[in-house]
Amino acid sequence: MRRLPLLLLPLALACETTNDRVNKDDPNAEITIKPDELEPMANFVLETNRLLVAEFVRIQCSAQFFEQQMGYTRDPNLVLRTPVEVLPDGTRVVVLKSVHGQETNIDPDTLPRVYFGSSGLQIRAYKEMRIYLKQARDRERPLFLKVEAKSEREDATLWVSGREQMKKPSILIESALLWSEEKERYIHKSAVD
Q1: Is residue 160 part of a domain?
Q2: pTM (2 decimals)?
Q3: Which residue of 1, 10, 125, 130 has the lowest C-beta tally within 10 Å?
Q4: What backbone phi and psi angles, to 5 degrees, belong to 37?
């Protein structure tokens, strides 16, 4: 079993001994996410071997946690990385564009690529990938990942552990930690569609 560190985010209450771990009235309080709350999300994103390939990909995620788990691989002769743009809300945007110009028989290793963990989710784009690293501000949903992949034809493809799972014009992968009042803890919700 993988050990995960206690994650403290600069948003919510750090006290774990009370039922009020999510203090909605104090926007400057810290969030405490326990390792057992984070583990299902880490398994879903960092340890489940998925490969998603499409023409255009948009990744939105909380910079906390995901930025340190994310890696980029690109050949600078074949993939252009634009300078980081900072939006008014603090979101940083990274754009990776394929510039090889080849329309068929494209070597997937030459595509813009983002990966999470050493054996987790891997994403490649034939044309363009936009990554939005958002600063977490929602105590009830402090960590999230949303990947939208689209192709003009039916060739956005998702493989899981080397087997094709789906092929269609658009594929959506979502993962988030959400506060559960009923359970008084963060729970993981995910979807692949």
Answers
A1: yes
A2: 0.82
A3: 1
A4: -80, -35
- Tell me how far apart the alpha carbons of residues 174 and 192 are, in angstroms, rounded to a whole number: 6
In three-state secondary structure terms, 40 is helix
Cα 182 versus chain centre, distance: 26
Which structural domain, as residue segments, surrounds residue 103? 36-192
Q: Per the structure, how many domains does the chain have?
A: 1
How many residues are present in the chain? 193
In a domain, residue 81? The reply is: yes
Which whole-number Å values give the CA distances from 140 to 24, 53, 54, 143, 144, in the listed order?
9, 31, 31, 9, 11
Structure tokens at 3: 């050990």
Domain-located, residue 30: no
**Is the four-CA dihedral 15, 19, 21, 26 of positive or negative sign?**
negative
pLDDT digits (tens, 9 = 90+) for 127-183: 899 999 998 778 889 999 999 999 987 788 898 988 888 999 999 999 999 999 999
